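Reminder to self: tokens first, then the designed residues, so the page reads top to bottom the way the pipeline ran.
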């Protein structure tokens, strides 16, 4: 089976490639210069040339809350076009099996309960990531429509909760909450700072899972594709307050200072956690608890990300000289 993996250089894609089960298949991982997902003809040509028979769609323009607020047009248009181009090219190229990776931001805002897969389009979206959510909804619905209209096609969607872990982007401005918190707290410890700022009041609740566990689910889904639900959540079913995430990261990094709250900053939905009932009936569940997952992310940050960042800075300095 020849599998096309889009977004192979991103966090999810990199974890998919790193997973041991990736060795069981022939995987095509083109860069953006090798395959432009904004060009449908280029996608069709690539699929036919390489005789692709299965697609894992993990590509997208992904960033944190600040990016989505600052660039709503880019988040909407790029992600929508990528999804529409790839999925329609797959259909016209007679590729019958596809796994689409969506996002839990597709669910309605401010429902104080676990989100069920049936609740997409059940209410208003969170304004801070509305554009990105709309793009993911369109892609997910298109997969469903194709599977309904064309009986030989099975285009299915995994809706992950918030993700973090190995190969994440650590940037306090344009990262998601966990990697941003790791970078802020690590810098505070390194520079002997006595406080770290948290956006909002710290009471907002979020569910996070490592990208390595999502990769495990994806390969489980490839293996058990026929029994995979058309749309299924991926998560732990457990949420924590933003304050609890910061405190746990602080403990793991031996931060002795205090946390201060910026109540003027946006903090998004007050609670976001997915139902894992359907996921468990599919036969898969998460294995890493919060501390184990955060330690995995922190180890990657310290042992790989910072070292590669230092090497790049030295390279840039050499080129400038």
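Designed residues (321 positions):
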């Amino acid at each position: 089976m020849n599998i096309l993996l889009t977004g192979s250089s991103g966090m999810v894609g990199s974890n998919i490639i790193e997973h041991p089960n990736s060795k069981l298949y022939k995987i095509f991982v083109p860069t953006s210069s090798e395959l432009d997902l904004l060009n449908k003809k280029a996608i069709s040509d690539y699929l036919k040339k390489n005789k692709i028979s299965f697609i894992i769609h993990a590509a997208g323009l992904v960033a944190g809350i600040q990016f989505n607020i600052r660039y709503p047009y880019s988040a909407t248009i790029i992600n929508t076009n990528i999804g529409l181009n790839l999925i329609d090219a797959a259909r016209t190229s007679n590729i019958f099996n596809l796994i689409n990776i969506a996002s839990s931001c597709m669910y309605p805002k401010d429902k104080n309960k676990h989100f069920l897969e049936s609740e997409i389009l059940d209410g208003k979206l969170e304004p801070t990531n509305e554009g990105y959510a709309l793009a993911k909804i369109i892609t997910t619905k298109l997969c469903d429509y194709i599977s309904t209209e064309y009986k030989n096609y099975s285009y299915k969607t995994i809706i992950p909760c918030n993700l973090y872990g190995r190969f994440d982007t650590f940037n306090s401005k344009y990262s998601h909450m966990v990697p941003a918190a790791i970078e802020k707290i690590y810098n505070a410890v390194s520079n002997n700072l006595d406080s770290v700022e948290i956006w909002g009041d710290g009471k907002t609740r979020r569910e996070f899972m490592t990208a390595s566990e999502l990769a495990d689910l994806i390969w489980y889904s490839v293996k058990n594709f026929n029994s995979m639900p058309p749309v299924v959540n991926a998560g732990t079913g457990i949420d924590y307050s933003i304050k609890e995430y910061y405190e746990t990261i602080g403990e793991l990094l031996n931060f002795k200072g205090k946390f201060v709250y910026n109540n003027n900053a946006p903090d998004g939905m007050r609670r976001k956690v997915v139902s894992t009932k359907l996921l468990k009936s599919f036969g898969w569940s998460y294995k890493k608890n919060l501390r184990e997952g955060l330690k995995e992310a922190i180890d990657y940050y310290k042992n790989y990300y910072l070292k590669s960042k230092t090497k790049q800075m030295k390279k840039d300095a050499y080129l400038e000289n």
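The chain has a mean pLDDT of 92.
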